């Protein structure tokens, strides 16, 4: 829900940094890898109860996630880069929840429910994205590697919610339940959008 607004704020800053990195020969995939390592470190910090460290590493992960795309646009984006980027994102999203479940036992059921909601929402997102790409649904195109299908809980909401958990870990259970509801609603949005789009828009009829 907040992704477009967040990109309008962050994109100008990232686009100013990206040319310098591109000229220095830093590859976008290297930035993705460093960002993923920071995300893994954030998850490990959570399992040790180092919440402030986890917050810093989580924000570094998110910063580098935006920066790799900005650099990729300077040197030329690739399908491999897009694939690695989304895979890194999803693994850290899930790893963070697992780490919270390990460190906060009372939040474990909520964390499992959140992972299930992620699974359904992610499946709907990736399946519809793939179909829309195959059918060339240009009206949904943006600068990213995949055709993103929006919803109530997007990347920006995840950044905020995960940061909130690190700030008030004693409320991790209730935060996880609330976010589970938001992600589940997003899954429903994406399913409804997929059904509606694929049934009713004649411009998206499959050519196969």
Overall outline: globular
CATH topology: Four Helix Bundle (Hemerythrin (Met), subunit A)
Helix/strand/pairing class, anyone?
mainly alpha
Low-confidence stretches: none
Order of helices and strands: HHHHHHH
| Number of helices, counting only DSSP H or I runs of 4 residues or more | 7
Summed over residues and divided by their number, the pLDDT gives a mean of 87
Strand percentage lies at under 5%
Distance between the termini: 33 Å
Q: How would you describe what is shown here?
A:
- Helix content is 77%, strand content 0%.
- The chain is globular.
- It has helices at residues 3-23, 28-47, 51-75, 79-103, 108-134, 155-167, 172-200.
- The protein has a single domain (3-204), classed as Four Helix Bundle (Hemerythrin (Met), subunit A) (Up-down Bundle).
- The protein is mainly α and 208 residues long.
- The chain has 7 helices and no strands.
SSE blueprint:
Elements: H1 3-23, H2 28-47, H3 51-75, H4 79-103, H5 108-134, H6 155-167, H7 172-200
Brief write-up:
With 208 residues, the chain is mainly α. The chain has helices at 3-23, 28-47, 51-75, 79-103, 108-134, 155-167, 172-200. It has a single domain (3-204), classed as CDP-alcohol phosphotransferase transmembrane (TM) domain (Four Helix Bundle (Hemerythrin (Met), subunit A), Up-down Bundle).
């Amino acid at each position: 829900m907040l992704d477009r607004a967040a990109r309008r704020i962050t994109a100008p800053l990232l686009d100013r940094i990206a040319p310098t990195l591109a000229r220095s020969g830093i590859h976008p995939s290297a930035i993705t890898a460093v960002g993923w390592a920071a995300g893994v470190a954030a998850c490990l910090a959570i399992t040790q109860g180092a919440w402030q460290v986890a917050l810093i590493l989580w924000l570094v992960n998110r910063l580098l996630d935006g920066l790799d795309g900005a650099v990729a646009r300077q040197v030329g984006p690739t399908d491999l880069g897009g694939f690695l980027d989304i895979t890194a994102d999803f693994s850290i999203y899930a790893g963070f929840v697992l780490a919270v479940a390990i460190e906060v036992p009372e939040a474990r059921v909520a964390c499992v429910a959140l992972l299930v909601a992620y699974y359904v929402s992610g499946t709907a997102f990736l399946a519809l994205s793939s179909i829309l790409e195959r059918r060339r649904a240009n009206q949904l195109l943006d600068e990213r590697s995949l055709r993103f299908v929006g919803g109530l809980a997007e990347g920006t909401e995840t950044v905020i919610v995960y940061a909130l958990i690190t700030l008030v870990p004693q409320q991790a259970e209730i935060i996880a339940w609330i976010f589970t509801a938001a992600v589940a609603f997003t899954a429903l949005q994406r399913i409804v959008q997929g059904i509606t789009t694929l049934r009713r828009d004649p411009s998206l009829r499959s050519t196969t």
